[in-house]
Structure prediction request, 278 residues.
Amino acid sequence: MKIGNKEFDVNRNCYIMGILNVTPDSFSDGGRYNDIDSALRQTEKMLSEGMDILDIGGESTRPGYTKISDEEEIQRTAPVIEAVKSRFDVPISLDTYKFRVAEAGIKAGADLVNDIWGLKYDSGEMAALIAKTGAACCLMHNRDNMDYTSYFDDVIADMEETVEIAEKAGISRDRIILDPGVGFAKSYENNLEVMDRMDEFCKRLGYPVLLGASRKSVIGLTLDLPSDERLEGTIALSVIGAMKGAAFLRVHDIKENIRAVKMTMAVMKGYRNGQDMH
Prediction:
């Protein structure tokens, strides 16, 4: 699939999406990159370590987060998108579920909309915007309750509803990535199960899949560690994700995850050449 001006071989490789939170309150790095200079320095660092896509977020979605206005989110994200685009050749993902924020972000240069509500937050405005602009999208599993009848089957059914919204809006199939939504509307056990069954998730839905588990609470609960000590747990989940078919991994720590994934892909595919490993 094509994101921005870059082609991604989603059937053979696993790519790294770097996280850049331009927020004061994100769960692990809030306030560290919420001015343009620090955001650009972090982008340059992540690119030097091998990042493939940059994901910019302007509103924290950690548990108990405070929702901000569209205007404030636009003010946080659009200038950073413009600044990154003017300096670096990297596809940019905008992490938002609000179509006005997405519209401003796409105008500023964003290539992909990363929607944590899987096009279900509004009455179709986000889906229409993505279809109209031709942007790529990552559509995540989420819901406003945890009333599952048959957990994994319900997740698949929820994602099929998201895909139907996308198709009806006219979003091209080759512009869609799906995300099982680790940490969203899921218990600890639910999170472990959806990651263990990632291969089924990929096969049953038939779209490229992104796994976003970096530093999340499922790691903290398993290892009894705070968010800034979850690197090894994140790497373990990245390796599992790559082995179970994820095409993209959304992570904070680029260098360490990319090395682990390269080694994983080398074992899975057999040695071909350095470029093919990533």
